[in-house]
Specification:
heterodimer, A: 131 residues, alpha/beta, Transcription Regulator spoIIAA, five-stranded mixed β-sheet, 4 helices, globular, B: 132 residues, alpha+beta, Heat Shock Protein 90, five-stranded antiparallel β-sheet, 5 strands, 31% strand, binds adenosine-5'-triphosphate, binds magnesium ion
């Protein structure tokens, strides 16, 4: 089955969405991420949506669910790289994405996670990536 | 440019096809990136509604060239249950399906023209137009 890859970097999970996801694929991602957070005890999740050309109400809802779910499992989610045209459209559509933390790019998102978790907890780029 | 395309909407991958077809035409018509994003997002919302609430249907995608102005017109049609109270359905946050209830009201804000005809027990037809 078609799936979106979840990469582990230290205590963080990184997801880069590179395809125009159909709804079932997005739901699979939500389930997979939830499982991976609990399996790995990850403390942070970065979702890179810089390649996404639109975010509609469904994807917005999925991102919100992931953020909520991760919080319950003691992990923070940051959505990074939203294109300006996507952000403008999202506001006009009426989605607030409240409860979702955002950052301009992966690097800044990672820094945000690190500082909110305290440095000792953070994932390191050259560290114990998953085998 | 005279273009007209009909896509049937029966699964969530058809919703992706609708997004892609609308994007391609919007690019060909010279839409700005923002307007491309708006019409594709609106198309995605209405295609999903056609699938989820209307039980499937079609979209007719038409490129409009009226000399001085160009645009895109999308007509979504289904023979589903229809919408009993249009005013209510167009309110931000109204949903009967556990969604966010932003699809219809939000799409109306993203386009220039929005027309909806719905009859209970017969189906729904929604026409949106976005000018370049
Ligand atoms: N084609 C349709 N046929 C029948 N009912 C519809 C149709 N389109 C919309 N509706 C009704 O209008 C309501 C509002 O639609 P809207 O798209 O705004 O919200 P939603 O689909 O419930 O949630 P979402 O925010 O995820 O789109 C739906 O819950 C449904 O009851
Ligand atoms: Mg909807």
């Amino acid at each position: 089955m078609e799936r979106i890859a979840i990469l582990q970097i230290g205590h963080f999970l990184l997801v880069t969405i590179q395809v125009d996801m159909h709804d079932r694929l997005a739901m699979t991602l939500q389930d997979d991420l939830t499982n991976r957070i609990s399996q790995t005890s990850a403390r942070g999740v970065l979702i890179d949506i810089s390649a996404l050309e639109i975010v509609d109400s469904f994807i917005g809802r999925i991102l919100g669910n992931i953020a909520k779910m991760s919080r319950i499992l003691d992990a923070e989610t940051v959505v990074v790289g939203m294109q300006p045209a996507v952000a403008i459209t999202l506001v006009e559509l009426g989605l607030s994405l409240k409860g979702i933390r955002t950052s301009l790019n992966v690097e800044k998102g990672m820094a945000l996670l690190r500082s909110s978790l305290g440095d000792s907890e953070g994932g390191s780029m050259d560290g114990d990536a998953e085998k | 440019m005279q273009k007209n395309e009909v896509i049937s909407i029966r699964s969530s991958s058809d919703v992706v096809l609708v997004r892609q077809a609308v994007r391609q035409l919007a690019v060909e018509l010279g839409f700005s990136l923002i307007n491309q994003t708006k019409i594709v997002t609106g198309a995605s919302e209405l295609a999903r509604n056609t699938l989820e609430h209307g039980g499937g249907g079609t979209v007719n995608i038409e490129a409009l060239d009226e000399g001085t102005r160009r645009g895109l017109r999308l007509i979504f049609e289904d023979s589903g249950p229809g919408i009993p109270d249009l005013e209510l359905a167009l309110k931000d946050g109204f949903t009967t399906g556990g969604g966010l209830g932003m699809g219809l009201s939000g799409t109306k804000r993203l386009v220039n023209e929005f027309d909806i005809v719905s009859r209970v027990g017969e189906g729904t037809r929604i026409t949106i137009t976005k000018w370049k």
